[in-house]
Specification:
Structural class: mainly alpha
Strand content: 5-15%
CATH superfamily: Hemerythrin-like
CATH class: Mainly Alpha
Distance between the termini: 42 Å
Number of strands: 2
Order of helices and strands: EEHHHH
Number of domains: 1
Low-confidence stretches: none
Shape: flat
CATH architecture: Up-down Bundle
Helix content: 55-70%
Number of helices: 4
Oligomer: single chain
CATH topology: Four Helix Bundle (Hemerythrin (Met), subunit A)
C-alpha cells in the first residue's frame, strides 16, 4: 500500500491519505488515479474512462453504503446522500458525453479532484473510525517515531 494517492490532475495535486481500512484505502487511490486520467484524456478516450470511473465509484460507494446503513445515524445519512449525488452527477455527465460534450467530463474530473480528498478526510475518516471502534471497542492508537531532538547551546 502506498502512502496515499498523489497524482496531478492538471494543476490539482490529489492527495488521499490512507485511513487504515485497506479495502477502502486501495479504492481511494484507484479513484484518484482514474480522476487524473480522465482530466488528461483526448476526446476519444473520455466515454470509456468515465464509464470505468462510474463503475469503480458505484462499487466503492456500495461497499461503504452497506457499512453506513448498518451504523445508522444522521451523519451517515449525509454520507449516503453525498455518494448518491456524485453518482447522479456522473450519470448526467455520461449522457452529455454521449451527445458529444467531452469537456464536461473533464470539468467533472476537475471537481472530483477537489472533492475527493475532503470527502476522504471528513466523511470516510469518520466511517473508518466507527468501523474500528465497532470491531475493537476502542479508539485507534498511532505510535510515531519521535523526531530527533536538537540541543541548542
Amino acid at each position: 500500500m502506498m502512502d496515499g494517492a498523489q497524482v496531478d490532475a492538471q494543476g490539482h495535486h490529489i492527495k488521499v491519505r490512507p485511513l487504515g481500512e485497506q479495502r477502502f484505502d486501495a479504492d481511494h487511490e484507484d479513484f484518484a488515479i482514474m480522476i487524473a486520467k480522465l482530466v488528461s484524456l483526448d476526446d476519444a478516450g473520455i466515454a470509456n474512462a468515465l464509464s470505468a470511473l462510474n463503475a469503480h465509484a458505484s462499487r466503492h460507494f456500495s461497499a461503504e453504503d452497506v457499512e453506513l446503513r448498518a451504523l445508522g445515524g444522521t451523519a451517515n445519512e449525509c454520507h449516503l446522500d453525498e455518494h448518491q449525488a456524485v453518482l447522479t452527477s456522473m450519470q448526467e455527465v455520461a449522457g452529455l458525453v454521449a451527445s458529444g460534450n467531452f469537456e464536461i467530463a473533464r470539468k467533472l474530473a476537475h471537481e472530483l479532484a477537489l472533492w475527493l480528498p475532503h470527502h476522504v478526510e471528513e466523511m470516510d475518516l469518520r466511517l473508518t473510525q466507527a468501523l474500528f471502534t465497532k470491531r475493537t471497542g476502542g479508539a485507534k492508537i498511532e505510535i510515531r517515531k519521535p523526531q530527533r531532538l536538537v540541543h541548542h547551546a
